[in-house]
Amino acid sequence: MLPKKKSRPGKWIALIIIVLLMAGAVTFFLLKRDSEVYERVKAELSDITTYHSFTGNIEVRHRQTIIADMVMQITDLRVKEGDKVKKGDILAETSIGSKLTADIDGEVSGIGVEENAMVMAGARLMEVVDYRDLKISVKVDEYDIGSLKEGKEATVKIGALNKEIKGKIGGISREGTVANGVTYFTAVIDLGADTALKAGMSAEVRLVDNTAKGVVTIPMSVVRFDDSNTPYVLKEDPDGRPVRTDIETGINNGTIVEVKKGIANGETVLYTNPDKTQGMRLGGQRTNGTAGGGSDNG
Asked: Where are the stretches annotated Disordered (predicted)?
């Protein structure tokens, strides 16, 4: 008859230690979870507007560059820098009796010839520029072009003047340009007359993308996402504990987000704020910590 194997105390001690460690880990997790601080915010009705933003420079739409088409002598220079002229006005006469005239209404600019001087063929003599009709050309990504239409209003900010003016889309190119693998189109923003504007000034153009009025909104910071990128929020159950609620979101302006499903106007959402220590603890132990979601009309 074989002798009985003696149990090894070390084996049982190791098992006991493992069990104690697991129990400690679970307890630590529960205590940590129960000590987590929550704040509350209510969903509210707001208006949201989102924009496309582009940058560009102010340009003149109409410019006439007058160039000598042959060797000639300017015998009568009838204009000076800055003169306003009308289409058809005589700008200069040559020794052979030919007249140089303005093809557009505008302002004389960049005179490069003197009276009685001989000029060679191809020489640039002057320009007539219409500073009353200005535009901005902006590059638009192919994925944004669908939301832009001719006649759509734009807000144009001129940083150098600290000024905002209104413009509208006057045209959109029918063919795109490919650069570094990205296709973009050119949209022209008509500005119209403004004596304060100067050609070459940089500008920021904003065009409305989407607008939602009177919709349920919450701060973007309270929305969570799971591993499948599904948005959800935490609500409070009858016992004062947070429960997950999946939501369907709409547009956002970077601060607040539209909620199409999952939250009603006035409902309370729980969230954690690492910058604050007051708030609501699990189990219904509340403090006075609150946060409000603001309305942002863009």
From this structure: 274-298
Residue 159's SS3 state is: helix
For the chain, the domains span 51-59+132-210, 64-129
User: Mean pLDDT, the chain, as a whole number?
Assistant: 84
Q: Please state, in angstroms and rounded to a whole number, the distance separating the CA atoms of residues 46 and 256.
A: 9
pLDDT band at 109 (very low <50, low <70, confident <90, very high): very high
Q: Tell me the pLDDT band of 106, cut-offs 50, 70 and 90.
A: very high
Q: Is the domain 64-129 a CATH 2.40.50.100 member?
A: yes
Cα–Cα distance list, 63 to 87, 107, 108, 110 (Å): 12, 9, 10, 12
What tens digit of pLDDT does each residue of 174-184 get?
Answer: 999 998 889 99
40-53 core/surface letters (b: 16 or more CB in 10 A; e: else): bbebbebbbbebbe
* Tokens at 50, concatenated: 């989102």
Structure tokens at 184: 């973009």
In eight-state DSSP terms, residue 27 is H
What are the beta bridge partners of residue 49?
211
Q: Do 259 and 247 form a contact (C-beta atoms < 8 A)?
A: yes
CATH topology of domain 51-59+132-210: Elongation Factor Tu (Ef-tu); domain 3 (2.40.30)
